[in-house]
Amino acid sequence: MSDLHSINEAINAKAGRKLLPSILVSLSLVALVWLTLAYAREFFALLVAIAVGLGIREIARAFSATGTRISMRSLIVANCGLIYAAWSAGVAGLAIATAISLPVLLISRLRKGPQDFVKSATATTLALIYLPFLAGFLVLLARPDDGLARVMTFVVLVGCNDTFGYLVGVLIGRHPLVPDISPKKSWEGLIGSVIFTSLGGALSFHYILELQWWIGIIVGLMIVFTATSGDLIESAMKRDLSLKDMGSLLPGHGGMLDRLDSVLLSAPALYLALEIVKHYS
């Protein structure tokens, strides 16, 4: 037992966070996603809206700490509108809701005068596009009749990328991928993500979506790129804002944004891939 404890402590020290709570939180989130999709898909859209709302709160607080203020309440209202529009009217609804929300948010900022307007407007635009707009594609994945299969395939792909990239990087990672942005991310971890996400893509596309396995490999490689890029983008934001984590809501993960980082860029990528496959099949 002492040997296992020592190994666990060594992994925690190298990874920079506790492994067991991280795994438990991930499994709990997957179970919650599956339950909502299996029994009441409308509640999945609500779950996405809540997660994004928590992310908006985190990013608003992070910006505020550096003197950049954005309207958290206005963004949360916009978030609800975008998620509802995506669920009720599809990709056109999401696009229209975004096109309406952005100018409304910018116009409402005018009440505070010209001081720091560009800084605040830029941060507001980033928050709107980065969070509710990109997260809207999660809702678009869940919206069709096969929404459960689509989202669970997405969970498999992103889960393989994050989990095996993390484990391989912790166990044998020696060569930093981008040390200036994320010192703990390694080339070995990226290779682990490529191998296991390709395998997960082949299996999930064949057994869950009932599509050709080789398409799953291609999509898996695409998800490695988008999920890793999303992780690096959030890491760059944290470094620029001098933060370790965006929050402390999720044990072993940090804040909600630390959990959503690889998801946000990957959801529109998988949505596009499935639409292309649907069009040409």
Query: Largest sheet at a glance?
Result: 2 strands, antiparallel
Number of helices: 9
Shape: globular
Mean pLDDT: 89
Task: Tell me the series of helices and strands, N- to C-terminal.
Answer: HHHHHHEEHHH
The helix content is over 70%
Gap between N and C termini, in Å? 54 Å
Strand order of the largest sheet: 1-2
Radius of gyration: 19 Å
InterPro entries: PC_trans
Family: Belongs to the CDS family.
Subcellular location: Cell membrane
GO molecular function, one term: phosphatidate cytidylyltransferase activity
Characterization of this structure:
- With 281 residues, the chain is an all-alpha fold.
- The protein has one domain (21-280).
- The protein has nine helices and two strands, in the order ααααααββααα.
- The protein has helices spanning 2-15, 19-39, 41-65, 72-109, 117-142, 147-172, 187-207, 213-240, 256-280; strands spanning 176-178, 182-186.
- A hairpin with a 3-residue loop joins strand 1 and strand 2.
- The longest helix has 38 residues, at 72-109.
- The termini are far apart.
- The mean pLDDT is 89.
